[in-house]
C-alpha cells in the first residue's frame, strides 16, 4: 500500500513512526518545503505552550536560580544534524527548560511552572496525539485564497480535529480565525497564526471548518467571506 508521505507530518513530530517510515519521511522532508514548515509549526507551538505556563517567580527564588547558575559547570551543547531532529514529544521538556535558562541568564525573572498548568499542557499534547494517530483519522487539504494552505486531521472517535495552516501571508491589524460550521452556522474555534497548528475539540455535528480574515483580536461572528473551507 502506498503511503501519502504528506500525511506523516503529525506522526513524525509525535515520534510514532517506525524506523523505516521515519527514514522514508525524512528523505521526503529534505525535498518538501511544505512539510518542513508544518514540522516547524509543531515546534513553534511547543515553544508557545511552554511560554503559556510560565510565571514570574519571587525575588528570593530568582536569586537562588542565578546563584546556582553561577556555580554549576555548564556542559558543551550537543549539535544535532538537521536531518535527525528529535521529535516534538521528546523535545517539549527541553524547549521549556531552555526558555527558562535564557530568561534567567538575561537577568529577567525566571520561570515557575504550576502543577495544574503543566497538566493542562500535557493534556493538550496528548489530545493532539490521539487525533493524529486515531484509526479513523481523516486528512483533508485545501489551498486558501490569497495564498497558503490548510490541512485538517479529523477523528470522529475523538470528537476533535487538528488544523494546520502554512505559508499564509502576514496581516496588518488583522488575524486569521477558524470556525466550525454546522449547517451554515459558524462557531469560533479561535485565531491562528500564518504558520501554526490548532487543536479543535467538540466538532461532532460540524460539517466544515472555515478560515476568515478578521479584525485584530478576532470576532464573535465572521465579518468576511471564508478564504477557504475544509469538509469534515
From TrEMBL:
Domain Putative zinc-finger: from-to ranges: 6-36
Membrane topology classification: Single-pass membrane protein
Coiled-coil segments: none
Residues making up the signal peptide according to the UniProt record: none
Pfam families named in the record: RskA_C, zf-HC2
Keywords annotated in UniProt: Cell membrane, Membrane, Transcription, Transcription regulation, Transmembrane, Transmembrane helix
Domain Anti-sigma K factor RskA C-terminal: 95-227
Record PANTHER family: ANTI-SIGMA-K FACTOR RSKA (PTHR37461)
Name assigned to this protein: Regulator of SigK
Species whose genome carries this gene: Aeromicrobium alkaliterrae
Amino acid at each position: 500500500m502506498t503511503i501519502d508521505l504528506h500525511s506523516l507530518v503529525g506522526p513524525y513530530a509525535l515520534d510514532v513512526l517506525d524506523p523505516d517510515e521515519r527514514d522514508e519521511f525524512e528523505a521526503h522532508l529534505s525535498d518538501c518545503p511544505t512539510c518542513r514548515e508544518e514540522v516547524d509549526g509543531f515546534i513553534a507551538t511547543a515553544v508557545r505552550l511552554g511560554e503559556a505556563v510560565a510565571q514570574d517567580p519571587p525575588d528570593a527564588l530568582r536569586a537562588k536560580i542565578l546563584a546556582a547558575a553561577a556555580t554549576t559547570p555548564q556542559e558543551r551543547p550537543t549539535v544535532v544534524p538537521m536531518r535527525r531532529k528529535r521529535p516534538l514529544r521528546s523535545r517539549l521538556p527541553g524547549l521549556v527548560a531552555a526558555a527558562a535558562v535564557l530568561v534567567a541568564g538575561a537577568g529577567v525573572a525566571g520561570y515557575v511552572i504550576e502543577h495544574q498548568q503543566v497538566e493542562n499542557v500535557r493534556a493538550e499534547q496528548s489530545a493532539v496525539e490521539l487525533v493524529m494517530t486515531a484509526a479513523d483519522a481523516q486528512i483533508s487539504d485545501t489551498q486558501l485564497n490569497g495564498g497558503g494552505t490548510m490541512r485538517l486531521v479529523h477523528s470522529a472517535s475523538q470528537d476533535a480535529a487538528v488544523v494546520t495552516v502554512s505559508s499564509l501571508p502576514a496581516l496588518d491589524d488583522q488575524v486569521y480565525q477558524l470556525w466550525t460550521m454546522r449547517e451554515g452556522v459558524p462557531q469560533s474555534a479561535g485565531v491562528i497564526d500564518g504558520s501554526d497548528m490548532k487543536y479543535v475539540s467538540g466538532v461532532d455535528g460540524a460539517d466544515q471548518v472555515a478560515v476568515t480574515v478578521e479584525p485584530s483580536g478576532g470576532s464573535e461572528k465572521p465579518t468576511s467571506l471564508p478564504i477557504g473551507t475544509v469538509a469534515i
